[in-house]
Input
Amino acid sequence: MSTQDIKEVVKEKYGEAARRVATGEGNSCCGASACCGTDVDPITRDLYDLGQTSTIPEEALKASLGCGNPTALAELKPGEIVLDLGSGGGIDVLLSARRVGPTGKAYGLDMTDDMLALALENKKKSGITNVEFLRGEIENIPLPANSVDVIISNCVINLSADKDRVLREAFRVLKPGGRLAVSDVVVRGEVPEDIQKSLLLWVGCIAGALRDTDYVAKLNAAGFTDVTMEPTRVYNIEDARTFLTGQGLDVDAIAPLVEGKFMSAFVRAAKPAAPPVVGQKSSLNVLKCC
Output
């Protein structure tokens, strides 16, 4: 599948999800054979607490198709400028805007017209004013260099066919000393390719998640330092049983090959305040999940 084909698939899936929310039908992004984006889905459920969801429009929560809660872990400070890559219905943008306060600002970037329309409506309903939604691709961020304090993202970087470019763009727009704080789906260890593709269709709606060591290597290559990866949810074979059975796979036979190897993780990295030393690298620091 070409880069353009992948973009079109993502646009269609997430555009459909936005339309379903707008018409009150729900928010599944993965089709009838999967539960991604529903209240019974182990990936998307229970990511936000009542204290957060009570402050934003219901439609923003229903349109959330993420795998984590980056706003809860990014340690946002008043006055900071935040950019959400692949902002969808705007839930993380609106929550970030509240955290940075009136002296700060939260941008949301999305390439899907239906999601942008939904996000703008959610902004209007919320009454939050320090928010701006941008149309564009995460591989080509429409903001100047050194203009953002924090970049967040919620299970979107794994959807890109050119993750190296996404991370280079993120590095470019971050201010020196700025930080990346994203939730994403990550693969740990070796998994047979055909099985990995089937599982990632369930986990991420399109097979594109990186192995943990590859993720760190790409961050280093883009210029980031101080990389850490904190597992937030580790998926077991029972989580995916219904979907995999529907794909014609023998779940019990593949369980030993995949158990505990797919996870949602919170990835942190920093743009150095000063030019990094040539050849400097980060090692993978995987924090234990609470």
Remarks:
- Confidence is low (pLDDT under 50) at residues 27-43.
- The longest strand covers residues 174-187.
- Residues 3-22 form the longest helix (20 residues).
